[in-house]
Write a structure and sequence with these properties.
Layout lengths: L1 H19 L5 E3 L5 E4 L15 H15 L2 H13 L3 H14 L4 H14 L2 H14 L3 H4 L1 H13 L6 H5 L16 H16 L7 H16 L3 H13 L6 H10 L11 H34 L1 H8 L1
Antiparallel strand pairs: 1-2
Helix pairs in contact: 1-14, 2-3, 3-4, 3-5, 4-5, 5-6, 6-8, 10-11, 11-12, 12-13
InterPro entries: TPR-like_helical_dom_sf (IPR011990), TPR_rpt (IPR019734)
Pfam families: TPR_8
Keywords: Membrane, Signal, TPR repeat, Transmembrane, Transmembrane helix
């Protein structure tokens, strides 16, 4: 019987790492309700918010009346932003600021609300204030938000990779950079885009540019499926530079610069990399089924041992 249990543990250990990549950030509200769980890291599709937001607001209002905890009001303000009630959210955050000045969530969400209203100057003031309160929040990525707002205030000629993220990946067929720590930049850029795409729909020139940059970074760190998906999103958001077509091609197919020095084994390896996320998912599902079958077959012996 111990062998059976050890077998179950071993099978779980095999598929647990594969499942881990399916789980993203989760936002839990003050009333313990989960607002969203992001399911994919690397391609920013935005948050999948629940439909019944009015119910959540009622729950948060009841929670605040009962506890006087400002987290309930702050979360209500975020829900108002999701609903597109930006001015109402701003007024609520002003109320929170008057009760308890200097809260990070107030400054951050106020900045977001003002930007969505179109008041980029006021948005910049509050986002910079939020960074002063907590420079490490949002994975330390709010400097990108600041640059986005500055670009909006300066004009479209500042909608460039160099201005927005301080990097440029060239105009050639293959992206290039002299930056070493691309993984950290990829994480920060993903975070900013995932938040922004939750509220900003196509087409948008800044989002398009940043998605193109994220595609370039993904390609350079070896995540070609993510690169291809990000390039596609960039196209959807209005990125129309001629180089996009070339980079879509190189991220979709094996990177064959010269057929004579590119072995069949290398081609197979790149094709495998393109399909690896799907393979991991299928492997995880099969492992779960295998565990379920084993438990079912030996249920009369296993369950009594668990009591």
């Amino acid at each position: 019987m111990r062998k059976i249990l050890l077998t179950l543990v071993f099978i779980f250990s095999l598929f647990t790492p594969s499942l881990a990549c399916l789980n993203g950030d989760t936002r839990e509200l003050a009333n313990k309700l989960t607002l969203y769980t992001d399911q994919e890291y690397g391609v920013p599709y935005g948050h999948d918010f629940p439909k019944d937001l009015d119910y959540i607001i009622l729950s948060l209002e009841k929670g605040y009346k009962k506890t006087k905890d400002l987290d309930y009001l702050s979360d209500k303000g975020y829900i108002l932003i999701i609903q597109g009630k930006y001015k109402e959210a701003v007024e609520l955050y002003k109320q929170i600021e008057s009760i308890k000045p200097g809260r990070y969530s107030t400054a951050s969400n106020m900045g977001t609300a003002y930007e969505l209203i179109g008041d980029n100057k006021e948005a910049l003031k509050w986002i910079e204030k939020s960074i002063a309160i907590d420079p490490h929040s949002h994975s330390g990525s709010e400097w990108i938000h600041v640059n986005i707002l500055k670009a909006k205030l300066k004009g479209e000629k500042y909608y460039t990779s160099d201005f927005l993220i301080g990097k440029d990946f060239g105009k050639g067929k293959y992206p290039k950079t002299d930056t070493e720590d691309l993984h950290a930049l990829r994480k920060m850029l993903y975070y900013q885009l995932n938040e922004r795409i939750s509220f900003v729909k196509p087409k948008d020139k800044i989002v398009a540019r940043l998605l193109f940059d994220l595609g370039n970074i993904s390609y350079l760190v070896g995540w070609k499926p993510d690169a291809y998906a990000n390039y596609q999103l960039a196209k959807e958001y209005g990125f129309d530079d001629l180089v996009l077509k070339e980079r879509l091609t190189i991220s979709k197919t094996p990177d064959i610069k010269n057929e004579t020095d590119y072995s069949e084994e290398q081609i197979k390896k790149e094709i495998l990399e393109l399909n690896l996320p799907r393979i991991n998912l299928y492997t995880s599902i099969l492992a779960l089924i295998a565990v379920a079958v084993v438990v079912f077959l030996f249920r009369k012996k296993v369950f009594p041992m668990l009591k």
